[in-house]
Amino acid sequence: MPRFDHNAFVNACRDERGVGHHTLRAYAQDLRTFARFAEAHRLSDPLSKDDILAYHRHLRDELGAKPATIERRLVTLKSYFAWREDRNSALPSPFADVRISVRIPRRLPRPIDRDTLRAVLKEGKDTFAVRSKSGADDAMPTSQNDVTILIIKLLIVTGLRISELTNVKVRDVSHDGGQILVNGKGSRERIVFVPNRELREDFRRHSEVRRKEGSVAAPLFLNTEGRRLRSATFRKRLRAMSRRLGIEPHLTPHRFRHSAATLLIEEGIDIRMVQALLGHASLRTTEIYVRLSNHALRRALERVNILDVLSV
After folding, report:
1. Whole-number percent of the chain with pLDDT over 70
2. pTM
3. Among all residues, which ones are annotated catalytic?
């Protein structure tokens, strides 16, 4: 049976290519899946094209994996064998003559409709109004609910991934709350802006409070225990809010990101600016929001039905 040096490959991806934590975890999972297959089928080096085709059938027919999962596992495996061959030419990659086409259904993202966004933001306004009446300190936000609403607004305005926002440190925010330095996928840095005056002021106040509380290298957003707020914790808060407001399908951080992109394009912002805001490496990734916007236009036109209006 071949020996798979998973850890060395994952470490090389991290140290030499700057691959992010979530991707590294996916790589490790993908390679463990193949290692189990290799052990069960007693594969030995050098692996052949037939071994790879058999693994593809195993993923598709026996494990019932989704097309996107199959593609990712095969891409990871191909990258691993290319890396291994580069280190040891006596171990050629079995992917040299393999041509596998995995058809992945293209699904449109599901942004949050404007009425639902209004309901969510109204919840935030109501909360702030209650706090103001109670005479609480205005050097806020202080409560976790305030922080949740602040993050939601930032997601809508900036289109950030939730992991990007929860990893922001105090020093990454400008003193006026108008800019955030973000470390995105592949360790690519970019600057995002907070254009809304009221939101910028709330964000500035929060950042100022955090700056006074400790080190500028500390996380900007904390959980109830005073540690960095994690993405999973924020998702749980959104699920609770969804239940409270009766929102289906439930709110997720990425749906706010989809909403940000769709709203900007619908309001006439150039697609390349949206690409820069979202941190997409390829314009093709951003173009899906143009198609989504066209889909929304079609539904709106069908609702209006001009010929029926003229026949009245």
Report:
1. 83
2. 0.67
3. 161, 185, 254, 257, 280, 289
